[in-house]
Amino acid sequence: xxxxxREEILLAALDVFGERGxxxxxxAAVAERVGLSQQGVLHYFPSKDRLLAxxxxxxxxxxxxxxxxxxxxxxxxxxxxxxxxxxxxxxRGIVQSFTVLSAESVLDDHPxxxxxxxxxxxxxxxxxxxxxxxxxxxxxxxxxxxxxxxxLLAVMDGLQQQWLLSPDDIDMPGLFRAFLALLRT
Length: 185
Fold this sequence. Notes:
Order of helices and strands: HHHHHHHHH
Structural class: mainly alpha
Number of strands: 0
Helix content: over 70%
CATH topology of the largest domain: Tetracycline Repressor, domain 2
């Protein structure tokens, strides 16, 4: 439950961005979702770019994003990541917003482009450290932890997209754990 009007706007924007992407979303759509005028939303967030930046920050603050884990300072394991993927089945809107915004951010001059480039670069680094700690420096097939890290992220993103398209057919956490079993052999 949102704690205040500002948070309510951010959660509505998260949904609208997930449904329409950044380019298809509007301040008016967010305003309608929370029962405000456009000016009411602009009072809290002076532009759509600022609203997007705050939505992405909210994801970090709330731990709504598995790739934000590296900055938590806690002990993260591959099993921790698998547990979060399992939990994500209950958070379709969060998964959808991440999937839509990250895919859309590859467009030139997208306001979230730098955010996602930085985030994935950081995630590859800490993911490689986790893989090295748990599986050692030599993985099956001669794969290095630095090679395994983007593969793990690609599996996670790909499973999310397939699950969003066919939730009854894709066991996102089970398939991720199956991939981990391959990695750990």
